[in-house]
Design a protein that fits this description.
21% of the residues lie in helices and 31% in strands. The chain is α+β, with helices and mostly antiparallel strands. It has 2 domains: 54 residues; 126 residues, Immunoglobulin-like. Strands 2, 4, 5, 8, 9 and 10 form a 6-stranded mixed sheet that branches. The protein starts with a helix and ends with a helix. Bound molecules: copper (II) ion.
Length: 182
Amino acid sequence: MRRIFSALVLALLAATAVAVPAQAHAELKSSTPASGATLDAPPPQVELTFSDVISLPDGDAITITGPDGAKWPLAQSAAVDKVITAEFDTAAAKAGAHTLAWKAKSDDGDTIQGTFTFTLNVAAPTSSAAAPSSVTMSAPVSNAPTSTTSQDSGGVPLWVWILVGLVVLVGAILLVRRRPRS
Ligand SMILES: [Cu+2]
């Protein structure tokens, strides 16, 4: 009987050991502009904050596509610690829904990526002051949640904690059973 318990404990420990290291890579925690935000002015800088240290990926770290399908010119992408920033030319801003696609290299070597949308209420001011009372048509806001393509979810799943609890319980049972014989 004790042998069965021991085997069970070993099996549970092995399952736990496999599950825990899977939480290693970084996730997007917050951003400027925020996912789903509606802005009255184009932000001069994009900032993405991750849960862990990241670095710039191969290719573009940040791509912003405007309502007309055109890409905003971005410059000076930089990755410092957990934050990626990029400057962009606010003169190119157009009113409407924008999609921001991001990509980063996680500290564990995985490339993580995702997209979110934000809406700009105003176009960049043009040099001619021709339209002082322009009506801003705000495009429908799509509040698509930040999607992250990665092999695993970030946190420790509930079943790991259940397993840990079971291991402790079985261990306690084994101890109690052993005691009267000694
Ligand atoms: Cu990873």
